[in-house]
Amino acid sequence: MKILLTGKTGQIGEELNNIVGDLGNLITVDKEQLDLSKPNSIEPVILDIKPDIIINPAAYTAVDKAEEEPDLAMTVNAIAPGLLAKAARKVGAGLIHYSTDYVFDGCSTIPYKEEDPPNPLNVYGKTKLAGEKALAEAGVPFLIIRTGWVYSLHGKNFLRTIKKLAEEKDIIQVVDDQIGAPTWARSVALKTHQILKQCLNKKWLETKDSSLSGIFHLTCQGKTSWHGFAREVLNMSNTSQNIKLIAIPTSDYPTPAVRPPNSLLNNEKIQKVFGLDMP
Questions:
Q1: What is the pLDDT of residues 188-232, one digit of tens each?
Q2: Alpha carbon of residue 7 to chain centroid
Q3: Which helix (H) or strand (E) holds 167?
Q4: Gene3D superfamilies under this entry (predicted)?
């Protein structure tokens, strides 16, 4: 069993690199070895490696910058996954891909289910949705794992941003009217390992069992606002007593990309199909 992992230096990719190796011969590539911004380079790499499974956490994730670089974001997040899937079909591989809560507009008052109609508000969300569609139409066994508010101890994420601001400022303002479920990258990787193990045990590649393919939501349980998340980061860093944390509305913190007010995802499907419970 040969497993190809892209984006090995990203938040989820780094955790996967440490976890999924026991399922087969793990081959990892970074941007230098497989550049998703260069579509013509994708198929030759896949045909050369001939993996049985491709895991693709690599993505263009700079949400605000995507508003300025829509073509690059579309290439990496939409065109590249489609080409990965087409190449996977040629070598008989299955594909695990990651998407985002930002495919929804956040107008719902309850957590989103997989079948809820998407309506992304920003370029990043639109490109990730286009990637989902391109992958799903390629005719390969696939899993699209939507997650959101991912954090880890490395890379660019909200947890590290707040910790850095706490070192530089006495007052931090954070929006309190966007709701989501902070999700540890390692939890996503651990659950991906469990899912892949089940798929392999059930001969997913051979049977192409449609019940094991499709879109699945995977986030940690609970909910909070960015302000609530920041408060917990400061509390756990033992710096809350030194920082004045101020809650503000999104309207007071304009950004190039519009964010959905509700990013909560419903995990019932992944629990039912794979028996997984998130922390």
A1: 999 999 999 999 888 888 877 788 899 999 999 999 999 999 999
A2: 12
A3: helix 158-168
A4: NAD(P)-binding Rossmann-like Domain, UDP-galactose 4-epimerase, domain 1
For the chain, domain boundaries: 2-156+182-222+264-274
CA–CA distances in Å: residue 180 to residues 22, 69, 222, 223:
32, 26, 8, 5
- pLDDT category of residue 262 using cuts at 50, 70 and 90: very high
What would the pLDDT profile of 117-146 be if each residue is shown by its tens digit?
Answer: 999 999 999 999 999 999 999 989 999 999
Task: Please tell me the distance from the alpha carbon of residue 39 to that of residue 45, in angstroms, as a whole number.
Answer: 11
Tell me the mean pLDDT in the region 159-179.
93
Q: Shortest CA distance to 12 belongs to which of 46, 51, 53, 55?
A: 55
Please give the positions annotated as active site: 124
CATH superfamily, domain at 2-156+182-222+264-274: NAD(P)-binding Rossmann-like Domain (3.40.50.720)
